[in-house]
Amino acid sequence: MSASRNPSSGILVFVVGALLAALLAMHELVPTTRGLALVIESALPWTGVLIVLLFIVALFRFSVLSIIGVLLPALVWFMMFGGYLRPADVPEDADIVVASQNVGARMPQPTATAQSIIDRSPDIVAVQEIESLSGDIITEQLSAHFPHSAEEDTIGIWSQWPMTEPTEIDLGIQWTRAIATTISTDHGDVRFYSVHLPSVRPGQESLRNNALARLSEAIESDGAERVIVAGDFNSGNTDRYFEQLDDGLTGTREAVGGGFGFTWPSIFPVVRLDHIMVRGLDPVGDLVLDRGTSDHRAIVGFIDVP
Known about the structure:
306 residues; alpha+beta; Deoxyribonuclease I, Chain A; 2 domains; 6-stranded mixed sheet; 12 strands; 32% helix; elongated
């Protein structure tokens, strides 16, 4: 009997598809034990590959059940991630252009790294891991191009417009990993946060999770109408703790689409750890730069003031 006339031939496809759909829809039920949730949630966008493979299997085990087994996870996946796949162009100009990169401590070719950011003509730059001689060179290059800057520990902000003295955001750790300043742009004041949340490894997420919660509280309590938060969050878009970040924030890549915009690791990015998020502003573009010498790719966000 051919597979197309055998009702049982698609049972395996149906079962796998149903389980995949359930994982996508209820991933927050996955236990956090030993970093299981961290790994699974970071990889959720890549389940699209599994759905394609399931579809190929279904072609050889064709039945009503196999069709349902593919459609179930496909529909859930597109409900979650379809917006990222819509075509998007990088605008020629915007009211505010923001660049951000974790440049990596003691990295090679720091001058080229700084220049690659400058070449994109951003108005504001947030940089993380400014350390050692490479950090000094990057700082010197950016400061020569931008008239206003602020640095605290290993993070910094450079701006074409005047800014207030930065204040440290307490993330519950011993060193400075987040600062905020008010930047007087040509389009009005904007509250700008530069952040670098603690690194995370499977089973060792508590420090980052606590820092995310504290950052969310600080932004939520900030009375500024227009807010930009940029930096290395060490969190993917689908991480349950990242999703709890202030609901009023919108990521530039999430808003405009054009793909997932993965940034780490730079040699073959599989997750977006670096984000530019806004409140009270309109994201109109998002760009991930080509691989440099850091393990993070730089991102550029294009933002209009309503």
